[in-house]
User: What shape does this take?
Amino acid sequence: MGDLHRHAEISAHVHAQVGPLRPDEDWICLELGNYLTDVSQFRDPFANMLAKRTVWGEGLGEFGFLSLIPVIGLLVSEAILNWAIDLDEWIDRMFGVHEPADQRNGKLAGYFQHIFEGMTHLIFADDVPQTAVWRPLLAPALGDIARLPSAEVARIFGHAFTQYYPHEHTDFPPYVLYGEQRVNHRLYKRGPRGLLAYLEEYTDYLAESLAKLEVDWKAIATAPKTDPRRHDVLVRLGKVLHGIEDYYFHSNHLELHLWNELRAGRPKGETDDAYRTWFAANVASKWLPPESTPSSSRDWTPSREHQVRAHLRRLRYPRYVPVNTLDREKSDPALDVIFTAGFDKKDLFHTLSMALESMEASLESMENLFVRLPDALQTTLASKNPQRLRDIDLVLIKVLFNKAERARMGRDEKYRDAQLELHVKQLKEGRYEAGIRHLHAGGYLNDRARDAWLAAIAIDREMEDFGDYTPGVSGFMMQLLAKGQVELEQSRRRSAGFDSARDRGPGNAFDERSDNGATGEHIGTHTLMSKDTSISLPVHEETRRVARFASMAVARHLVTEVNAGGGSSGGLDWDRILRHYLRFPHARAGMWETQVLNHVRRTGADPKYDEIPDQVVQPRVQGPDAAARLAARRSGTVRADLEKRYIGLEERVDHFQLLLKF
Assistant: This one.
């Protein structure tokens, strides 16, 4: 999931560059669609059911399925295996079952749905009296872009908060469950453009979505600004742009670009090994300076040695050994192929822990509510010494905003159990409901945010009351966060040890092991490859600049076509447009990616569309088959087929639970 702020920054950039072409739009809907795509990852039936398979498989042997689990799935297998009780009903109720359909999303998904519903109102609704409190924390990039009526936010949330699908995030898909078997499957083979085949399918999905969106937007372009249909097309555009942006954030694109760009200046005939040695010694001087970050208590940033090692490891493709385990000896070079990050056993730990650390750092640096709380809010949150959220008495809040607390709970089992017991007491005493109602009374929540968060607490209480030995949702999550912080810190210590490794010794920049012993450095994983946070170094700055331009350019093509009108008889060639932006980075001087980066290096600013010479040639569909091609895209089923394929995985793994149980 990364940093939600990063996508919001790009939405703000698109608004600044493209919004003037259509000023009479509620452009906040663009980021609403992008944001809802991100948070919908917390509803993922396949991941939950796959984790259940791991739990039951513990009784039959080592399965190794954990490396397949996206955002939520790891929760089950890491937190509940130690509870020596009959978990059948609790697991199914908490994490859902494939059939019947109305039980696909269990209580965990329902809890997150309500939490994010409330958060969505704080960010996007126009009726939160104390909105100035939340905006700098939750959506600083969106500034004063006009928000929406809460009823409209609720309507959009109702249909646009969906579930996780790999294609919406350009993620490495788990369509083949065993990593060692993927090498022979067509979707994981390199295509003629240098992309793995599944990425070409994703490009087809994006082209189809934009072709349909183009027709629908033209049809309602003159409707009143507040017409829900006009909001919906912008929400849909935000969803599409999210996938385009993640093509860069989640792949080895910028690492390859810099590799190829620098190699063009090296002596002809230089061997790969000789160039790699030179590259490792010199690449750091070629990276763009990272974005400035506010000072905070964050005590870890990747060292130069770590960044060089990460850059080179992102240029390799993972190998697996049976059963679905990253190879501890080898990986494969990936200098001629684009692929995106997948999920490994500990990715969720790193993702959640780093996101919370980022949030904590932001709170410390802000000269507003969350540095020193107003007296009224101190009373609301019922803290004895509540100058910072990290010091608050409510256990759940303290765990969320205090990495030292998470680490202590992860290391000290007795302390963890005592804190969880205190949390249950606070939950049953109604402390959280009281806090929510006080926040509402003080103007910090609108009605819908209050109701959503109260509904989440009701689910938490229901699951807490299920049995004496099973936790509620928040108790379960706190155990995960505690384990996650410990895992993150262990991986960082391991990485720090590698920083002093000999040139050719284990852990050095040339170490080719898929699993080198530091879970944050596993080849092909989200933790290693994703670059959507300010400490996801190196090439974070290059990636966000290129992603900004590509997202803006695609939106500009669409808006320009909508403004031109002309009905549906013609249209844009979205296959041509997208394959101009989503391509292999040869890094030639005349390619737009090189031009964007050179502009940033020269000026420090993002280029405008017209400042980049390498533009799409003939963006409109041309030729005798134009009508047929347009019709095929506008009536296509790529999105539906991809969704069906992913849901099919869910059915397979959940049906297998029955065999394991009996």
User: Anything to note?
Assistant: The first helix runs from residue 4 to 18.
